[in-house]
Amino acid sequence: MGSLYSDFPTWLHRYGAGFKLACMALFGTLLFLITNPWVLAVCALGAALLWFSLGQATRIARRLIFSVLLGALLVALFHLWMGRPALAAVSALRLASACVLGVALTVTTRPMDLLEVLDRWLAPLARLGLQPERISLQLGLMLRFTEHFFVQWKKLDDAYRLRTGQAGGLRLIAPLTVQMLQAARRVADALYARLGG
What we know:
Elements: H1 17-33, H2 37-53, H3 62-81, H4 85-108, H5 111-122, H6 132-164, H7 173-195
Protein backbone atom coordinates (compact mmCIF):
# COMPACT_ATOMS: atom_id res chain seq x y z
CA MET A 1 0.00 0.00 0.00
CA GLY A 2 1.16 3.53 -0.74
CA SER A 3 2.43 5.74 2.04
CA LEU A 4 2.92 9.47 2.56
CA TYR A 5 5.88 8.87 4.86
CA SER A 6 8.97 10.81 3.77
CA ASP A 7 12.52 9.51 4.26
CA PHE A 8 13.83 13.07 3.95
CA PRO A 9 15.15 13.80 7.48
CA THR A 10 13.63 16.67 9.43
CA TRP A 11 13.73 17.82 13.04
CA LEU A 12 10.31 16.20 13.61
CA HIS A 13 11.63 12.78 12.55
CA ARG A 14 13.80 12.77 15.68
CA TYR A 15 10.80 12.59 18.01
CA GLY A 16 9.09 9.31 18.85
CA ALA A 17 5.76 8.30 17.35
CA GLY A 18 4.10 8.25 20.78
CA PHE A 19 5.14 11.80 21.59
CA LYS A 20 3.96 13.10 18.20
CA LEU A 21 0.67 11.23 18.40
CA ALA A 22 0.01 12.55 21.92
CA CYS A 23 0.80 16.11 20.85
CA MET A 24 -1.47 15.82 17.84
CA ALA A 25 -4.30 14.47 20.00
CA LEU A 26 -3.82 17.27 22.54
CA PHE A 27 -3.57 20.10 20.02
CA GLY A 28 -6.39 18.63 17.93
CA THR A 29 -8.66 18.58 20.99
CA LEU A 30 -7.70 22.15 21.89
CA LEU A 31 -8.55 23.29 18.35
CA PHE A 32 -12.12 22.10 18.82
CA LEU A 33 -12.42 23.67 22.27
CA ILE A 34 -11.31 27.10 21.05
CA THR A 35 -14.10 29.24 19.61
CA ASN A 36 -12.31 32.58 19.17
CA PRO A 37 -11.44 33.10 15.47
CA TRP A 38 -8.38 35.20 16.30
CA VAL A 39 -6.93 32.53 18.58
CA LEU A 40 -7.63 29.94 15.88
CA ALA A 41 -5.88 32.18 13.35
CA VAL A 42 -2.77 32.11 15.57
CA CYS A 43 -3.08 28.31 15.79
CA ALA A 44 -3.35 28.12 11.99
CA LEU A 45 -0.24 30.29 11.67
CA GLY A 46 1.58 27.90 14.03
CA ALA A 47 0.47 24.91 11.96
CA ALA A 48 1.67 26.65 8.79
CA LEU A 49 5.06 27.38 10.36
CA LEU A 50 5.31 23.72 11.40
CA TRP A 51 4.51 22.65 7.84
CA PHE A 52 7.06 24.95 6.22
CA SER A 53 9.72 23.95 8.78
CA LEU A 54 9.60 20.39 7.41
CA GLY A 55 10.94 21.54 4.04
CA GLN A 56 11.35 18.89 1.33
CA ALA A 57 9.72 16.19 3.47
CA THR A 58 6.32 17.74 2.71
CA ARG A 59 6.76 17.46 -1.06
CA ILE A 60 4.97 14.09 -1.22
CA ALA A 61 1.88 15.54 0.47
CA ARG A 62 1.67 19.02 -1.02
CA ARG A 63 -1.19 18.13 -3.34
CA LEU A 64 -3.07 16.66 -0.38
CA ILE A 65 -2.61 19.87 1.61
CA PHE A 66 -3.83 21.89 -1.37
CA SER A 67 -6.98 19.73 -1.42
CA VAL A 68 -7.46 20.27 2.32
CA LEU A 69 -7.12 24.05 1.99
CA LEU A 70 -9.54 24.03 -0.92
CA GLY A 71 -12.01 22.07 1.20
CA ALA A 72 -11.59 24.54 4.07
CA LEU A 73 -12.23 27.40 1.65
CA LEU A 74 -15.42 25.74 0.38
CA VAL A 75 -16.62 25.24 3.97
CA ALA A 76 -15.93 28.93 4.69
CA LEU A 77 -17.77 30.04 1.54
CA PHE A 78 -20.78 27.91 2.48
CA HIS A 79 -21.03 29.51 5.94
CA LEU A 80 -20.51 32.97 4.44
CA TRP A 81 -23.36 32.27 2.03
CA MET A 82 -25.48 31.30 5.05
CA GLY A 83 -24.63 34.67 6.63
CA ARG A 84 -22.38 33.34 9.43
CA PRO A 85 -18.91 34.86 8.92
CA ALA A 86 -17.62 33.98 12.42
CA LEU A 87 -18.56 30.33 11.96
CA ALA A 88 -16.96 30.41 8.50
CA ALA A 89 -13.64 31.53 9.98
CA VAL A 90 -13.76 29.10 12.90
CA SER A 91 -14.69 26.06 10.77
CA ALA A 92 -12.12 26.74 8.05
CA LEU A 93 -9.28 27.47 10.48
CA ARG A 94 -10.04 24.37 12.56
CA LEU A 95 -10.20 22.11 9.51
CA ALA A 96 -7.00 23.47 7.97
CA SER A 97 -5.02 23.41 11.23
CA ALA A 98 -6.11 19.90 12.26
CA CYS A 99 -5.38 18.48 8.81
CA VAL A 100 -1.94 20.10 8.64
CA LEU A 101 -1.08 18.59 12.04
CA GLY A 102 -2.27 15.16 10.89
CA VAL A 103 -0.35 15.27 7.63
CA ALA A 104 2.79 16.51 9.43
CA LEU A 105 2.53 13.46 11.68
CA THR A 106 2.01 11.19 8.68
CA VAL A 107 5.00 12.39 6.64
CA THR A 108 7.39 12.15 9.61
CA THR A 109 6.25 8.89 11.24
CA ARG A 110 6.49 5.34 9.91
CA PRO A 111 3.14 3.51 9.89
CA MET A 112 4.57 0.58 11.86
CA ASP A 113 5.77 2.96 14.58
CA LEU A 114 2.24 4.33 14.95
CA LEU A 115 0.85 0.79 15.15
CA GLU A 116 3.30 -0.13 17.91
CA VAL A 117 2.27 2.96 19.89
CA LEU A 118 -1.40 2.08 19.55
CA ASP A 119 -0.63 -1.46 20.72
CA ARG A 120 1.01 -0.10 23.88
CA TRP A 121 -1.67 2.47 24.61
CA LEU A 122 -4.54 0.04 24.14
CA ALA A 123 -2.94 -2.85 26.07
CA PRO A 124 -4.87 -2.05 29.34
CA LEU A 125 -8.13 -2.85 27.53
CA ALA A 126 -7.19 -6.53 27.75
CA ARG A 127 -8.25 -6.40 31.42
CA LEU A 128 -11.78 -5.64 30.25
CA GLY A 129 -11.86 -8.75 28.09
CA LEU A 130 -11.23 -6.87 24.85
CA GLN A 131 -8.57 -7.63 22.26
CA PRO A 132 -6.38 -4.50 22.09
CA GLU A 133 -4.23 -5.86 19.26
CA ARG A 134 -7.31 -6.15 17.04
CA ILE A 135 -8.45 -2.63 17.93
CA SER A 136 -5.01 -1.19 17.19
CA LEU A 137 -4.93 -3.14 13.92
CA GLN A 138 -8.29 -1.65 12.91
CA LEU A 139 -7.10 1.87 13.77
CA GLY A 140 -3.85 1.24 11.92
CA LEU A 141 -5.71 0.01 8.84
CA MET A 142 -7.94 3.08 8.92
CA LEU A 143 -4.86 5.34 8.93
CA ARG A 144 -3.13 3.32 6.20
CA PHE A 145 -6.17 3.29 3.93
CA THR A 146 -6.53 7.06 4.33
CA GLU A 147 -2.93 7.42 3.20
CA HIS A 148 -3.39 4.87 0.43
CA PHE A 149 -6.43 6.73 -0.89
CA PHE A 150 -4.46 9.94 -1.46
CA VAL A 151 -1.40 8.12 -2.81
CA GLN A 152 -3.53 6.26 -5.36
CA TRP A 153 -5.38 9.44 -6.29
CA LYS A 154 -2.03 11.16 -6.94
CA LYS A 155 -0.77 8.25 -9.07
CA LEU A 156 -3.94 8.16 -11.17
CA ASP A 157 -3.91 11.94 -11.58
CA ASP A 158 -0.25 11.92 -12.65
CA ALA A 159 -0.94 9.17 -15.19
CA TYR A 160 -3.95 11.06 -16.55
CA ARG A 161 -1.90 14.26 -16.84
CA LEU A 162 0.78 12.42 -18.82
CA ARG A 163 -1.83 11.09 -21.27
CA THR A 164 -3.98 14.19 -21.67
CA GLY A 165 -2.10 17.17 -20.24
CA GLN A 166 -5.06 17.91 -17.93
CA ALA A 167 -5.98 17.14 -14.33
CA GLY A 168 -8.13 14.05 -13.85
CA GLY A 169 -10.61 15.58 -11.41
CA LEU A 170 -13.89 13.72 -10.99
CA ARG A 171 -13.03 11.37 -13.88
CA LEU A 172 -10.75 9.50 -11.48
CA ILE A 173 -13.49 8.53 -9.05
CA ALA A 174 -14.45 5.29 -10.85
CA PRO A 175 -10.90 3.88 -11.31
CA LEU A 176 -9.95 5.06 -7.81
CA THR A 177 -12.97 3.26 -6.34
CA VAL A 178 -12.03 0.06 -8.18
CA GLN A 179 -8.43 0.22 -6.97
CA MET A 180 -9.46 0.90 -3.36
CA LEU A 181 -11.92 -2.01 -3.41
CA GLN A 182 -9.22 -4.29 -4.83
CA ALA A 183 -6.78 -3.18 -2.12
CA ALA A 184 -9.42 -3.76 0.56
CA ARG A 185 -10.10 -7.24 -0.80
CA ARG A 186 -6.38 -8.12 -0.80
CA VAL A 187 -5.99 -6.89 2.78
CA ALA A 188 -9.13 -8.77 3.87
CA ASP A 189 -7.86 -12.00 2.28
CA ALA A 190 -4.46 -11.58 3.95
CA LEU A 191 -6.05 -10.95 7.35
CA TYR A 192 -8.37 -13.92 6.97
CA ALA A 193 -5.45 -16.19 6.05
CA ARG A 194 -3.43 -14.99 9.04
CA LEU A 195 -6.09 -14.47 11.72
CA GLY A 196 -8.95 -16.66 10.58
CA GLY A 197 -12.61 -15.65 10.75
